[in-house]
Amino acid sequence: MIRLESLTKSYGKVVALDGVDLAVRAGEMVTLVGPSGSGKSTILRLIAGLDRPDRGRVVVDGQDVAQVPPHRRAVAMVFQDYALYPHLTVRGNLLFGLRVRRVRRAEAEERACAAADRLGIAELLDRYPDETSGGQRQRIALARALLREPTVYLLDEPLASLDAPLRFATRADLLTLHRELGTTTIHVTHDQAEAMTLGERVVVLNRGRVRQIGPPQQVYDEPEDTFVAGFLGSPPMNLVPGGGVLGGGTDLTLGVRPEDLRLDPDGPVTATVEAVEALGSEAVLLTRCDDGTRLTVRTGPRPGVWPGDQVRLRADLGRIHRFDADTGRRR
Ligand SMILES: Nc1ncnc2c1ncn2[C@@H]1O[C@H](COP(=O)(O)OP(=O)(O)OP(=O)(O)O)[C@@H](O)[C@H]1O
Question: From which residue to which does any coiled coil extend (predicted)?
């Protein structure tokens, strides 16, 4: 449905994308993640036609869209900065696209109200964008995108400025919407929970290159290299070059996720607790082993240990990841 072929784009000396290949199926929801500057927004901009690739192609439904101007591409993009029309009310913003498409007034009103209801912004319809909060503006932009009924949604951190409860609720809304509408969706996020839940596949990018693509749980369970291992998951996977306290050979880097380490009075690894982060539903211990290796351990909410305590740790041996020490590739 959407195919990116060897997509390459530089801005001056900065290589934003370096040969990205990606195929997104019709109706699929895909998440782009990666550090700041890894090229996520650039991918969306090239699909939307807001920028041109230096090399490579964007193919939509079998057609190379290089010659198709942005307004003729059936994509609706929601940006981090919303891009609402400031001189129109919320209602006006929602109706704008429908008017352009000559939808009858009564029907347009009905659809705009339904979209506003759905995203919980019905009471804001008569306000201007600058009379609403950042989170509300984000919902208005989503409602407007919803009304375009595009073949593809491109969402650039659509939930970024929502507070935690609203973010949780809107995440669920987005999933329901996607189930109902089945519109192909590519979205960018910095949020680990969204990366894990809000897409059938996750694409991990670094420095303009795809590092791994797969169902989120699979990428989480079997990261192909140390970069992906360290990027997906919060707190990140513990990586021990040479194996060290986790055992193993010097030609390996061993990895273990914080939840796969546990406090065990008979555990083989001795460590000192340096900090305890009580997060309510769980706690994260930052520990330092006798050889200086730092290990992060995820425990239940009240681990009963304090900074300065000596503890013993045990890793779930079945869940130790092995990477080549030189290349970082999974072995
Ligand atoms: N218009 C531009 N002019 C110059 N450099 C740009 C431009 N747009 C993007 N870049 C550069 O291209 C690289 C990729 O940018 P992009 O916005 O795609 O990253 P991103 O992964 O979306 O980052 P973030 O998570 O911070 O939004 C960055 O190094 C960025 O500075």
Answer: none
